[in-house]
Amino acid sequence: MNRREAIKRASYLMGGAISAPAVLGVLKGCTPKKELNWQPAFLSEDQAAVVSEVAERIIPATDTPGAKDVGVPEFIDEMMNDIYGEEDQQQFVAGITELQEMSQSEYDKDFANLEPEQQDALLTKLEAAAQEQGESDKKPFFTTMKELTLLGFCTSEVGATQVLQHIPVPGRYEGCISVEEAGGRAWAI
């Protein structure tokens, strides 16, 4: 190998070492944005994407549909828009913002674009913080999110008929029976 060939190879090596981080930085920023299949009334599209992913992590799709499949994110958006007061709305949005900031600081990605394991890790931290806060006038974001997710899922047709037991025209009332006697599932009503 002559001097010219050595300089040529060294320049290729240096060029690759210098440009690789720049190329990776550009490619890392090319994460596709998850599209919503509904139009939020209260939340922004980015906030709605976060709510959708959190709801899906709380009730994921298994042998039964998950929270996103039965419209829980839309339910939460409607509840926030129509039922909750301004202070609760602001607190909910602040919780979404806090979750996004945690996601950016730990993984340098939006929450909606994280892997499920990474999402679970952040939600576990939020849940631990909510439990530490205990009973107070202001409910933590994650507590409100869990309550609304469960309410939305259990009052959906799928939740009431496939997960819970539902009789549209109930017969006689039997107040004190075991779950096994009731067919192995809790009642939807």
TrEMBL record:
Protein name, as recorded: Gluconate 2-dehydrogenase subunit 3 family protein
Please name the source species: Roseihalotalea indica
